[in-house]
Amino acid sequence: MLHRIKQFYWDITSEFKDIDIKFIDKYLNNLEKELFKNLNKAEQHHCIRVAKLAIKEYLKLEEVNDLDMLIKICLLHDIGKIGSRLNIFDRVFLVLGDKVTGGNLKKCTNIRKINIYYNHPQIGAQKLKSLGYDDEFIYIIENHHKKDIKDNIVINILKLCDDKN
Ligand SMILES: [Fe+2]
Ligand SMILES: [Fe+2]
C-alpha cells in the first residue's frame, strides 16, 4: 500500500522533473532514444529509476556480465506502453479494478488501455522483434511480469527493480 502511494506521488511529480538525458544517452542508441521518448514522462522516469536500481543490484551479483545490456533492457522493458496514454487516473483505476475483479479485468482486451496495461510485455516484444533484437532480449521483455519464470537472472533483477519503482 505504502508502495502504491509512493508510485502515485512519483506519477504526479514526474511532469515537473527533468528526464536524465545523460543517462539515456549513455545506454541507448539513436533509434532506442526515439522509442524511449515516445513513452509518457511518468513511464520514462519509471524506467530510469528501474535501470538505476538495477546498477546497484548488479554490483551485488557476479552472474550478469553485461551491465550495458541489463541497463538497456531496464530502460526499454515497458516499451510496449508507447501510445497507451495511460494517465495517473487510468493507472489508479486499473490497479484497483484488477484487485476488485480478481484479475478478471484483463479479459477486457477490446478496451485499448486495458489491453496495453496487461499485454504491454507482448506488445513490446513484438515491436523489438520487428526491429531485429535478439531472442534473449525479446524473451526478457516478453516475460518481465511472469510470476512463474524464476530461473533467468536478468528477469529476476528486472522484476525486483520494477516492483520497487
Ligand atoms: Fe511492465
Ligand atoms: Fe515497469
TrEMBL record:
What InterPro entries would the database entry show?
A: HD/PDEase_dom, HD_domain, HDIG_dom
Highest taxon, organism lineage? Bacteria
The HD domain extends over 45-162
Tell me which SUPFAM superfamilies the record gives: HD-domain/PDEase-like (SSF109604)
- Alphabetical list of Pfam families matching this protein: HD
Question: CDD domains attached here?
Answer: HDc
What name is this protein filed under?
Answer: HDIG domain-containing protein
Q: Which organism is it from?
A: Clostridium frigidicarnis
